[in-house]
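re: ur question from the group chat, yeah i did fold both. here u go
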Amino acid sequence: MDNYAIADQLSLLSKLMDIHGENSFKSKSYSSTAFTIEKLPGEISSFPKEKILSIRGIGESVGKNIIEIIETGSMQQLQNLIKKTPEGVLEMMNIKGLGPKKINLLWKELGIETIDDLQEACNENIIATQKGFGEKTQNKIVESIQFQQEAKGKYLYAKAEAFAEAFSEKLKIILPKKKFEITGAFRRQLEIIETLDWVTTATSAELKEELVTQQMQLVTDRDGMLILNAENALLLRFFITDEKHFATTLFETSCSDDFLNEWQTHFQTNTDAKNEEEIFASAGVNFIPAFVRETKEVLQKPLPKNQNIVAINSVKGLIHSHSNWSDGSNTIDEMAGALIGLGFEYLVLSDHSKAAYYATGLHEEKIKQQHKYIDELNKKLSPFKIFKSIECDILSDGKLDYDASVLSTFDLVITSIHSNLDMPEEKAMKRLLGAITNPYTTIMGHLTGRLLLKRNGYPVDHKTIIDACAEHNVAIEINANPKRLDMDWRWIDYALEKNVLLSINPDAHTIEEFQNIKYGVLVAQKGGLTAEKNISSFSLQQFEIFLEETKKKKGIW
């Protein structure tokens, strides 16, 4: 039970209390306590009970609930409210535009208990006529329901990863004499996973005998394919083949339809090949890793044989991270110490700017204090270096959150949009281009503001943005948070064509989130990003030269 898991339960309890119309003062106390716990420098689960009860802002009643969560994994008060809440009402909590009080009105006054009921009420224009809603909110609800329906049965790569790896090991244990190799979308490192696929020499009968249980149900068994449903959620597909055709089946199931159709149009697959390398060699094509086998253009313009595709171990600096000076959980010292232990050469500290008040964004005086502290740390930590940066909000008019006198004090500036995300393309482009043309913008952060399977990003003309970044010497972030992975890897090729540098950044708010880099690397590989074009793969010396040259090009040196 880490701080985030405990805070999530308290936050959920607060929302459910509001949905049930319970005491608003008590519900707010749980919400504020959740926020307090997320900001604690250490794990509250390791604190003595008396220390938990003495934390400022945590009363005795809430403190006892926290202790109950730590000891049992949950709290009875929350479970009681969940049991009293229809499943459809719980699902409404994920709908954009619906807060707890609006859900209370829908449920208690209109009798709406399911998403289908809600969608029907929107279609009949009932929701728009309710006080506090209106047509705009009704339209957002409809859009959010449609988005949820489209996302159903889909999972983030990072969410499917642990299960995929553990299940692969289980398969080898229960059928040790049979071959298994994971394939499909997971092997291609797609950011969204709808099925987990394996190629196997096990028979359908052997798989069913070992796997079909109450939690693992049979969906399909035909034409050399067995499909199971894991706990009514994730589909597991098994492509059944023999030893002779294992490599061919692995190759074909590791290609997108687009790629495979192009391959079959121009090449004959060697069905006797012992491995995928032989398949490519027989066709006279340089080996193409599974993660690149996505579009037909890859075959039309193949990667150079010795291209230095970015890898996790080629990332030398951690760019874009938040400390407890804003909304991060760890001190700057802790972050630097962890990175030194991992062999990194530098840290780019990018706390939030003042407009992000909800994230304790830094005002000008606090920036001065942080910069002084970083100078002191750099003297102690050399040759490791901490760079002074900021994740500066792009305001509604396209201006940045600080003026030039403040921006000039940073080693580099990452600019991002965090507010008023519901906007048309014209507005989004005006804001983004305003930031790109500002000479102090070094890196454009999470370009579209999307949250995968949660919300669409605001509409962006990627080509125009990339062209502008090329003109104004602005790099583009590949935000490695597995919920973002933004800029989308499908635009990496165009960015490289325009000679725009990219930067795989974890957007870390805890030391544990340093590992987000992995997910950024996986999608960057799909786009063919090389270490030479990834800023976070620069050595400390290369990074310092990059900053110096960028400032000279922008005329701010």
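okk and heres the other one u asked abt
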Amino acid sequence: MFKPIPDRLTLLIGFVLILCCNRHTNANEDISVLPLNKISFEDLDAFNILGDNWKIAGGIQSDYQIKNSMMIQDGTGTLVNVPTANSRNNLFTKLQHGDIELKVEFLIPKGSNSGIYLQGRYEVQIFDSWNVENPVFSDVGGIYQRWDKSRPDGKKGYEGHAPIVNAGFAPGLWQEFHILFRAPRFDDNGNKISNAKFEWINLNGIRVQENIEVTGPTRSAKFNDEVAIAPLMLQGDHGPVAYRNLQYKLFGNSGHLSLKEMQYTIYQHSNRYMPDFDTLKITKEGTTSFLNPDSISQQNDHYAITYSGELDVPVEGNYLFQAQVNNGGDLYINGDRIIHINGQERNATNSNITYLTEGTHQLIFHYFSTGWGGPRLSLWYEGPGIEKSVLGAEIKESTRQIHEPFIIESDSTSSRIGGFINDSGGIRTHVLSIGHPEKVHYSYDLNMVSLISFWKGPFADVSGMWVGRGKSQLLVPLNATIESRIEVPIAQLNTSADLVDQTIFDQLTGKGYTINDDGRPEFSFKYQGISVNDEIYPSGNAYTLIRELQYISNRTHENIVSRIAHADSIELLPNGLYRVDGQYYIRIHKSSGQKASIVDVNEMQTLTIPILMDENKSEVRYDIIW
């Protein structure tokens, strides 16, 4: 285990990064995969109903401190299991699956236990494993053990697989599984020739299982045999659980796209724009089986290529095509331009979805390389029942070097690391990440003066800052990360008191941070004559962050509020906590004085507390629980 990088060095790294870079976002949305299919939770028509413990609801609230707490709201969109003494049945989909990519959100109350059975046979565990430090197979994200009563005592259970890390959240919060499962394979005589396999399981965005074979049904499976196709089963005989947004893709025997009769023409070209190929000088022509510039051109740059041939499509449906090139390229199918990359970016990626009928189609790919980063052309596709694959690739042994992670842990003291962070808005560059021995950590944007994310458990991998000259400069959290979306913790209401002023940055001055006597950073900035101090640290009982905001001014201010949370959905729960986007709780301390309110902001919601100066000072204090 690596120890924290010396503090002066981390501060220097962060300072250099801030000087060199600004936050960058990609303005071009990239469709990297085909959309998943969705099972409707407007009713129970997608399921074979065996009992009345399963219901459709509009939403769920749960007190994370009360066992099996489930408060069901009227409406649709949520599937709920509330088992009783008389009805505790499992639920089976009418959908039958073999290989499947599955994504589903689930909510489990305190102390509850459930599971998802692929093909009704292989269980991925759902369990209230909040803050379990050393998870086992029966914790959330585990692949449950098999069971054989004929084995000796103490060995009846076998082959259980614990999750790599406990990426679970607090009870009563929405969590997400994303699973790629392979069904067992059988020969023509029905003999099994390969086991069922979980390619991977992600829990809350973190890989918790990878390449796990299951030799047979796990304990409490509905069926003891193994088959190629079977329904999905949601366990209903243990504890209460809720689901929403159940999505899937089925992969089967649809075949693959293939190229035939491929020809190429190489031209002289030195401009960084897509050329008019009719005006270029031809230097070479021939046939090929691959979309690989290196295999047909002896030049490294200053040339263009036209590939043309037939694309064989095995099944009708929507197809995604995704290209990555240095420097530019256009994909045409049946004369329609599907992808355009203009050559103005390095390693540019673009994609599109088009509908193709079964049969043969004309394919043309125009490509050019002008010496900016060297030649590169990769074309991926995905279709109905067809997993994402490379089209026209020459099979070569991989030469890519796999680097070991460079792990930073905070075993006895806090760690402060300056580096870049990826979030849903792109790459944030002005970031300080703080790791604590209490195993709760966060990242803070020094430019936007905002708490941007937090996580628990292991701290961070900084190999992106050191390996290969630290090109990416990325710090990667080692567990499920929640993006807070809080932004600047101060705002001004307009005269109608229903909108938050979003022009705050025009009047904001960041002051960086200082280190207090406890060795923790205190961030500060000024807004309209108000000095704001911001401190975030672990609670005494761990696994919770406390945030203290202090507002200081020698004059009164009207309609100025402390911004506590900003989200698509903020709910006030019966226990007085606020649930933010279903992902974390806010508990406002009584010492904050004023009553919080939820304000609508551009189809989103903001949780605010009025800032009322008492002896030139106002303080807001709250817990973040997840």
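fwiw on the second one: The helical segments are 7-20, 293-296, 463-466. The radius of gyration is 28 Å. idk if thats what u expected
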